Amino acid sequence: MTSQTPSCCGPGGTGGPGDRPPGVPTPVAAATVPVVHDEVALAGGVFAMGNPFPDGFWGDGETPVHAVELSPFAVDVTAVTVAQYEAFVDATGYRTDAEGYSDSLVFHLLVQAGDDDLVGFAGGAPWWRLVRGADWRHPYGPRSGADPDHPVVHVSHHDAAAYCAWAGRALPTEAQWEYAARGGHAGRRFPWGDRLETETVADDGTPVVRHQANVWQGDFPTANTRADGFVGTAPVRTFDPNDYGLFQMVGNVWEWCADRFAADTYGRDHARGLVLDPSGAPDGDRRVIRGGSYLCHHSYCTRYRVAARSANTPESATGNTGFRTVRNSS
Description:
Blueprint: E1 39-42, E2 45-49, E3 66-70, E4 73-76, H1 82-92, H2 97-101, E5 103-107, E6 118-122, E7 125-132, H3 157-167, H4 174-182, E8 197-201, E9 207-211, E10 218-219, E11 223-224, E12 254-260, H5 265-271, E13 275-276, E14 287-290, E15 310-312, E16 321-322, E17 326-328
Parallel strand pairs: 3-13, 12-16
Antiparallel strand pairs: 1-4, 2-3, 4-17, 5-7, 6-7, 8-9, 10-11, 12-14, 14-15
């Protein structure tokens, strides 16, 4: 494993001086009518959680592989879309952290804003621009618009939890997320196998590369070849689902989990033996994100693996972070 800790994930705590203080979640009442999600019911049970390969990041705490037992739960087939989040905002009047700050982080090649709206850079990652007017309705800046079938982005952990409170759902625990992402297959790097891209053969015998996820192709962070068809987000039902029928569990956007993050979580759980429904670190100022995004690249950040872990502060929002939800059995 490497000790590298790159920032393609999105730096935290970079909001500007908006009209709402950071770190203050807004209470949201539950919807008065059921909010229907397209979901898959999963039986739960025991699975091996963690990274069996030597290609993770030491500081992320992807090891040791350890046995986890989960109760049954249901999980969204896709990440929450712009259209779904818009229904929530229309019903509640909710304003996101990015809207409260008046700005958010956008990858530099995607910015759609005037020079006056480029208000800063993220420390240590100059490809992240702090853009005034970037939010879930304007994912690349004030001159952009959000596609309804794309994953909602520029949502903080607070914003994702607020949606869940309204919809009568929850953010997945990290263990639920990894169980769902694996699709019933133990020990794989990706939901579909161990190679990021697979090859098929055309009728004339020519090898054809088959892309399985929306990640970076080209030279990061200056040139994306669009070999998979995208530079920014893709519609949530792009590429094949995993064997549980779940779309884009890796790539496209990072997904918030319920757990607090600690690098020693797996070590502590492993020492306890078989753990039922683990819920992460008991304390900490960051929340887990999983799955990687359209900015992950093999030369820099390989966190598009099903075992990869990262984290961000709960008020942070970026153009490559969204979420999906679960419905627990109890």
